[in-house]
Amino acid sequence: MEFFSPQPKPSRKKSKKTREKARKDCCEYCGKYGSVEVHHIKSKGSGGQDTPENLVSLCGVCHTKVHNGEIEKAELQALKEG
Ligand SMILES: [Zn+2]
Ligand SMILES: [Zn+2]
Fold first, then answer.
1. Residue 53 falls within a domain, yes or no?
2. What pLDDT tens digit does each residue of the chain (82 aa) get?
3. Is 15 within the bounds of a domain?
């Protein structure tokens, strides 16, 4: 029996397939591994979209810093420019 699920979300268990997405398990800013939160570099209110270029995975610490203005948006954009 199969259910249609467009975006299967792995639960707490990590399957082998999630290894490809391992990068998403670490903060793109400080590189810390663990649970990350997705932040919109350009907020949706400002026209930002759900594109990889506009989304950055941040640990809780860095995410808070971004919202506190301790990490500048330009720094996040620089991460994306590689
Ligand atoms: Zn971080
Ligand atoms: Zn955020």
1. yes
2. 666 666 655 556 555 554 444 456 899 999 999 999 999 999 999 999 999 999 999 999 999 999 999 999 999 999 998 7
3. no
Domain span holding position 68? 23-81
Neighbouring residues of the ion ligand 2, judged by CB less than 5 Å: 39
Quote the ligand 1 centre to 61 CA distance (angstroms). Answer: 6
Three-state DSSP class for 7?
coil
77 phi and psi, to 5 degrees? -65, -35
Tell me the pTM.
0.69
CB within 5 A of ion ligand 1: which residues? 27, 29-30, 32, 59, 62
Is 4 within the bounds of a domain? no
Residues 6+ apart with CB under 8 A from 40: 48, 50, 54, 55
Number of domains in the chain: 1
Identify whether 14 is part of a domain: no
